[in-house]
Design a protein that fits this description.
CATH topology of one domain: Rossmann fold
Structural class: alpha/beta
Strand order of the largest sheet: 3-2-1-4-5-6-8
CATH architecture of one domain: 3-Layer(aba) Sandwich
Number of strands: 9
Helix content: 25-40%
Radius of gyration: 19 Å
Length: 249
């Protein structure tokens, strides 16, 4: 029986992957959620009773127990981790010595071409490993609009991001999770790389107009300069700003 270890288990793709895997009526696998804080994860009540294992990219002492008996791994890099040489690659070294037979990595659109992305360095390392891998590259998550931008939209009636007139094909994290589940539960995806985007490209002016219509009040696209936005958002993820900078015109 396969044993799936899911990192990033409490948010977005990781959480939705666990839900979908456990919702299958007939399954010949075990699902384990890798979490930093087991008590907090339990208090969420959203993991459908999945077994939890203590795991922290910053603590190599958690690697062996988390990987015990694991045959398939879903790797999701936490946005706050930018130094992958220090925090991700040591874990991958442990993975290579483990029982893992297939690794699925959730990256981001464009990571294979842009060396500034932390995920680019992870992808490059995966391709040097002796474990079969699959890379999934989604575009920006639709959920970002109600997480990263929630405060600005609710309290300031604007979307504050330096994307210029660049177009974005937002994708639902739940749809990405459906692809991940198919990869984990079906053979033939080893060595493959998949790009997942939404169907309709939109700029942030269009997105702001949609919020205006749904909320019944005017939401504007602020279109800040990159330097101003970087200062404003410096405590947030390194991955999202780099992507947005590449969209700016």
């Amino acid at each position: 029986m396969d044993k799936f270890l899911i990192t990033g288990a409490t948010v977005n793709v990781g959480l939705d992957t666990i839900r979908l895997l456990l919702d299958k009526k007939e399954r010949d696998y075990q699902v384990v959620a890798a979490v930093r804080d087991i008590e907090h994860a339990r208090s969420m009540g959203e993991l459908h009773g999945a077994p939890l294992v203590d795991f922290d990219f910053d603590d190599p002492g958690t690697f062996a127990s988390a990987l015990k008996g694991v045959t398939k791994l879903l790797l999701i890099r936490p946005n706050l981790i930018s130094d992958v040489s220090k925090h991700i690659l040591p874990f991958l070294d442990a993975v290579e010595k483990s029982s893992v037979k297939h690794l699925v990595f959730v990256s981001i659109v464009g990571a294979e071409r842009n060396r500034v992305f932390a995920n680019h360095r992870v992808e490059t390392h995966l391709k040097k490993m002796n474990i079969p891998y699959t890379i999934v590259r989604p575009s920006l998550y639709m959920q970002n609009l109600v997480t990263l931008h929630f405060h600005e939209i609710k309290h300031h009636d604007h979307i504050y991001i330096p994307a210029g007139s660049g177009m974005v094909n937002f994708v639902d994290a739940r749809d990405v999770a459906k692809v991940v589940v198919k990869i984990l539960t079906n053979p033939g995806h080893e060595g493959k790389e998949y790009e997942i985007t939404g169907q309709e490209p939109m700029d942030f002016y269009k997105i702001a107009s949609l919020f205006t219509k749904e909320l019944g009040r005017e939401i504007k696209y602020a279109r800040p300069l990159t330097d101003s936005w970087w200062h404003h958002e410096r405590v947030k993820s390194n991955l999202y700003p780099f992507f947005c900078i590449s969209l700016a015109t």
